[in-house]
Design a protein that fits this description.
Layout: E1 2-9, H1 17-33, E2 38-40, H2 58-74, E3 82-94, E4 99-111, E5 114-120, E6 144-149, E7 152-160, H3 167-175, E8 180-185, H4 193-208, E9 212-216, E10 218-221, E11 224-227, E12 231-233, E13 239-242, E14 249-258, E15 261-265, H5 274-292, E16 298-301, H6 306-319, E17 324-328, H7 336-349, E18 352-355, H8 359-369, H9 380-401, E19 404-407, H10 411-416, E20 429-430, H11 437-449, H12 462-466, H13 486-498, H14 503-508, H15 513-525, H16 527-530
Parallel strand pairs: 1-2, 2-3, 7-8, 8-9, 16-17, 16-19, 17-18, 19-20
Antiparallel strand pairs: 1-14, 3-4, 4-5, 6-7, 9-12, 10-11, 12-13, 14-15
Helix pairs in contact: 1-2, 5-6, 5-11, 6-7, 6-11, 8-9, 13-15
Amino acid sequence: MTLKICVAQLNLVVGDLAGNSQKIIDAAQLAYQRGARLLLTPELSICGYAAEDLFLRPAFIAACDDAVNQVASALAGLEGMAVVVGHPIGRDRRTRSVAVQERFNAASVLREGAIVATYAKRELPNYQVFDERRYFTPGQGACVFEAGTAGNRVKVGLLICEDAWFEEPARLARAAGAELLAVVNASPFHLGKGDEREQMMRDRALACGLPLVSAHLVGGQDEVVFEGHSFAVGADGVVAGRAPSFVEDLFEVNATRVPLGIQLQAPVAPKRDGDADLWDALVLGVRDYVGKNGFPSVVLGLSGGIDSALVLAVAVDALGKDRVRAVMMPSPYTAEISLIDARDMAKRMGVRYDEISIVPEFEAFKASLAHEFEGLAPDATEENIQARIRGTLLMALSNKFGSIVLTTGNKSELATGYCTLYGDMAGGFAVIKDLVKTIVFRLAHWRNVNDPYATGHEPIPLRIITRPPSAELRPDQCDQDSLPPYDILDGILQRYMENDQSIEDIIAAGYPRADVEQVTRLIKVNEYKRRQAPVGIRVTHRSFGKDWRYPITSRFRA
């Protein structure tokens, strides 16, 4: 006896109930043709993950209910086929004085036109980017359903994402008769998360003595990216199959009954390099943010520096050269080699490239402010004026042509405030917002060696990577004039911001006290800037986004 299971690793759009439903229907029909009699779709597949405060709107819940029924009706002719779809459900709970509508993060089993079982997620994550307790009530009990045809059926225990990270939901499913666990997920990517997820599911399979199939979402949704990477694990904790990452896939798993239980067999995609994961996450994040929000193209400021070079390479890999425009905006302090390198990179990438000097505008600003600034030495004020002129020009191009502006600031700069409000922070999407500077350099080297999207080897001129980084807003400026060396800065940032270590613990780890004091102070005083920064792609376990919520006004330092 063998039951073929298909995992629909889908790229869904939040709120596109008709489009998501059609993807599920198409996947189910194709899986059926291939002989599958069980299809798993990702967590909240009907509505997309995460719909945030849409979950609070009764009309949204009602529309999701209708969509589930429509999918069930469309699949009524697939005899013996069970399809698991994720969706929110609501119900009214009345107290003595008020009616409260509860919400559940649920998954339903559809078979031959009917909803035959529904399970509500028990464990609701409320950490990092997750905020499920804001919207949902924990479910109770277990859900076990039969998949397959008469005489050839397997009892499947249904779990939703976080449920499988705890012992009790799997234990209850086994006690209810499950022979196999099906886990539907919407688990956001960060570097190393795929391996962590696999290891946890191996532990879960071993602990409960049941094989497990884990179905994952793929795609970009605002600041988070889902990498796919669905997989199957045997009851012995050994990975039996693995789907590819960062692409849609109909992943097939054969579940065969043997004397000791259910044995799983599936294709095994190879383990991936961490930098390849990072690159694909950035590319997918850009492609989906631009595509799902309907922007025809992107524009960015190309400075001849490492950050804008990396963003340009990501954008071309994501969208193709014809949808990317680069603009060099030289100031009186722009080095000739910056112009040469920017032209070289634009040529290598094949994108439209323009140069718009900001010297006339800069001189006009200085003339307008000459009386107010009389007797005062030039400082960061004049530097910021240059950045704001550039931001204004880019936003003007965006308004005129409909292109979204990609900002080019990195995590190290955003942490320390080494960026200008309404200047280099002006734009619609921050591609490398969650990459510290040392990783920016590492990824630039990686991309020059690898060409995963066939847009060209060595797109970044070597001098861009090897030159000391500079904002070029004053004569002979270097980033390290204002900041500690990036290897030190990034080490402090990762310990303090990502891992919540105290100042004294970081100093005890060998970092100079003066540098630790400077960096942590800058992180604190620049919170107001980060609140006004564009949304950007999250690739670490803690980004300056949904999982960083600190008061602007505060006198506490760790």
